[in-house]
């Protein structure tokens, strides 16, 4: 990227624009949560089918990235993003106009697929434009801004409901889609030149995914990122019951503490941004993993000993800071060697987050809504698995590379080279 390009595309401006697309995921999932009872009454259905509409959108967000990522590698970033935003508008209107719950669930799945483009392509654009320390700093800035969305989306939904029905929520999401379509048309410049795009058939796209899965370093960082974000899913699933049922907080008090953990992720991301280039990447990840382990161990000890609310909250706050540290670093280090297929690499990273979150988070409630012990165990297990993933996959791969380089030097020296 030339100096002229840097001046024309300041990091903050680009981060604000890309974070708007990243925000589509949280808004799609969170904004309608407060309206679920109203939707259940209007469709005259049961809670199970209403929950299925949430599951459908999450599946769309997870699986859609596997489609949108390769499409952006083949056709460029701008065109698939624009098409996805138009599809998002149509899906949002379809949700608002759905005559029965079955169609509502189906359209929510499509809405999730369309929203997934914002998540996966925003990371791919970041990789197209930046590398090395500059990418680390930019991803940290993007993470900081993007974490505003989960803080405001539930409240935005409640605000719309105070003036309208649940249909108004999806009309609002359609309007958000229109805004992002306009940004796609006039704000997003193509970041993937034609000569760098992936050529070939579906077989080529599959081979690209296979190459990523065979890359030990990539999969190590992807698993590290996905496992710890599964801890965030467990936190989201468990804390509403723990804070309100066990510690007796009101919904408003819970919302405040929940938002504070979003701020903690932003703090961790800012630490990475400020230390990038001044501290080694391995040391930063080591600090993040250590903080993750200590904080989740403290969570488990607190719930086993019936510790105070502030002990649990303080420990989860520190865990969220560790996510803010590890998230940008793991994304940068995973995608750095795969600029040619950044869309596919971004898709694997995002899908693993949703897939592992879907597997791990249900264990939080295995002992009922009045026990926090499974929550503490799950949180600690995610930290331990992340550490194991990093040591066994990433560090061992680096050690193998160092050994291979050393052997090559020895062989060349014996030949007199």
Please characterize this protein's 3D structure:
With 417 residues, the chain is mainly alpha-helical. The protein folds into two domains: 18-189, Growth Hormone, Chain: A (Up-down Bundle), CATH 1.20.1250; 214-417, Up-down Bundle (Growth Hormone, Chain: A). Helix content is 82%, strand content 0%. The protein has 17 helices and no strands. It has helices at 3-8, 11-22, 24-30, 36-43, 47-75, 78-97, 101-129, 132-146, 148-161, 166-186, 202-214, 216-246, 251-275, 281-304, 309-335, 342-360, 373-414. Helix 7 packs across helix 16. One of its GO terms (biological process) is xenobiotic detoxification by transmembrane export across the plasma membrane. It is a multi-pass membrane protein. The chain crosses the membrane at residues 12-29, 49-69, 81-99, 105-126, 138-157, 163-188, 218-242, 254-272, 284-306, 312-335, 347-366, 372-393. Belongs to the major facilitator superfamily. Bcr/CmlA family. It comes from Paenibacillus cellulosilyticus.
Tell me the Rg in angstroms. 22 Å
Shape: globular
The assembly state of the depicted protein chains is single chain
The N- and C-terminal alpha carbons lie at a distance of 37 Å
H/E series, N to C? HHHHHHHHHHHHHHHHH
Count, helices: 17
Topology of this structure?
Layout: H1 3-8, H2 11-22, H3 24-30, H4 36-43, H5 47-75, H6 78-97, H7 101-129, H8 132-146, H9 148-161, H10 166-186, H11 202-214, H12 216-246, H13 251-275, H14 281-304, H15 309-335, H16 342-360, H17 373-414
Helix pairs in contact: 2-7, 2-8, 3-7, 3-9, 4-5, 5-6, 5-7, 5-16, 6-7, 6-10, 7-16, 8-13, 8-15, 12-15, 12-16, 12-17, 13-15, 14-15, 14-17
């Amino acid at each position: 990227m030339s100096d002229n390009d840097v001046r024309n595309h300041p990091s903050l401006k680009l981060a604000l624009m890309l974070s708007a697309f990243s925000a589509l995921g949280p808004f799609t999932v969170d904004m309608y949560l407060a309206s679920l009872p109203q939707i259940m009454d209007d469709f005259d259905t049961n809670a199970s089918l209403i929950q299925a509409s949430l599951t459908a959108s999450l599946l769309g967000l997870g699986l859609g990235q596997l489609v949108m990522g390769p499409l952006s590698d083949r056709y460029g970033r701008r065109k698939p993003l624009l098409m996805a935003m138009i599809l998002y508008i149509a899906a949002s209107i379809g949700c608002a106009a759905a005559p029965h719950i079955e169609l509502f669930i189906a359209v929510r799945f499509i809405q999730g697929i369309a929203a997934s483009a914002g998540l996966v392509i925003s990371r791919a654009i970041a990789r197209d434009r930046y590398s090395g320390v500059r990418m680390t700093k930019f991803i940290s800035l993007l993470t900081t801004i993007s974490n505003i969305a989960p803080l405001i989306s539930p409240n935005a939904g409640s605000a719309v409901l105070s003036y309208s029905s649940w249909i108004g929520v999806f009309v609002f999401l359609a309007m958000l889609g229109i805004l992002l379509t306009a940004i796609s048309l006039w704000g997003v410049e193509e970041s993937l030149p034609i000569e760098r795009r992936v050529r070939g058939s579906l077989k080529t796209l599959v081979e690209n995914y296979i190459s990523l899965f065979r890359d030990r370093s990539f999969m190590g960082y992807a698993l590290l990122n996905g496992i710890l974000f599964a801890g965030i899913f467990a936190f989201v699933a468990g804390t509403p019951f723990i804070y309100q049922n066990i510690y007796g907080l009101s919904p408003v008090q819970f919302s405040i503490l929940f938002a504070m953990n979003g701020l903690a992720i932003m703090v961790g991301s800012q630490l990475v941004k400020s230390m990038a280039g001044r501290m080694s990447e391995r040391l930063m990840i080591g600090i993040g993993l250590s903080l993750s382990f200590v904080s989740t161990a403290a969570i488990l000890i607190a719930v086993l000993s019936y510790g105070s609310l502030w002990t649990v909250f303080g420990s989860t706050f520190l865990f969220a800071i560790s996510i803010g540290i590890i998230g940008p670093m793991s994304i940068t280090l995973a995608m750095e060697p795969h600029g040619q297929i950044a869309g596919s690499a971004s898709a694997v990273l995002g899908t693993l987050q949703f897939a592992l979150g879907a597997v791990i988070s249900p264990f939080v409630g295995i002992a009922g809504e009045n026990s926090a012990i499974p929550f503490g165990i799950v949180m600690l297990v995610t930290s331990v698995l992340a550490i194991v993933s990093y040591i066994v996959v990433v560090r061992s791969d680096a050690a193998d590379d160092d050994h291979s380089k050393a052997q090559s030097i020895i062989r060349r020296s014996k030949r007199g080279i």
